[in-house]
Amino acid sequence: MLVLFISRLTHLIKKVPRYDILSKKTLKVDEKYYLTDHGFRQATGFPIAKDIEKVLENIVYIELISRGYEVKVGKVKDKEINFIAKKEKDLSYYQISYKIRDEKIRENIFEVYNSIEDNFPKYVLSMDHSNFSQDGVIHKNIIDFLLEDEGVK
Q1: Considering the domain boundaries, does residue 95 fall inside one?
Q2: How many separate domains does the chain show?
Q3: For the segment 39-52, what is each residue's pLDDT rounded down to a tens digit?
């Protein structure tokens, strides 16, 4: 019975490895876990409003997986990039935030990309409708991102 429970649990929760972008190594510690169906979080009574950034991050994770990407959590020095998404030769980076209107929050979100010297697309996804793209980093509204065609970036 326990084996069946654990087997089913692995379908509900996915472990995502952490990848050090500068050393180009997958780390064996500090993995993150995401729900495969966001409804489970709501059903267990966790409030959405309290953890909106975690909820949005989980939704983007599910979307990237559904689009066929292999997803890892990025690490650059002491900072985190929410997702490194890879499909065949395509690679892209994603930072997720609820709102980035405040200049200080915006600086923190975009700053992590300063250490990445490759030319793969870098995105910041938030609920803001204003375009805060800067220095080659593309800002998108999360809803627009979720509704776009798979091939459109």
Answers
A1: yes
A2: 1
A3: 655 555 665 556 78
State the pTM of this model: 0.78
- pLDDT tens digits, one per residue of 12-58: 666 666 667 655 666 566 766 656 666 655 555 665 556 788 889 98
Residues 6+ apart with CB under 8 A from 77: 22, 115
Q: Which two three-digit tokens encode residue 56?
A: 């949005």
Structural domain span for residue 95: 2-147
- 109 exposure class (CB count in 10 Å sphere: 0-12, 13-18, 19+): buried
CATH number of domain containing 38: 3.40.1350
User: Can you name the residues that pair with 35 across neighbouring β-strands?
Assistant: 13
Q: SS3 for 81?
A: strand
Measured distance CA(22)–CA(44) in Å, rounded = 38
- What residues contact 148, with CB distance under 8 A and at least 6 apart? none
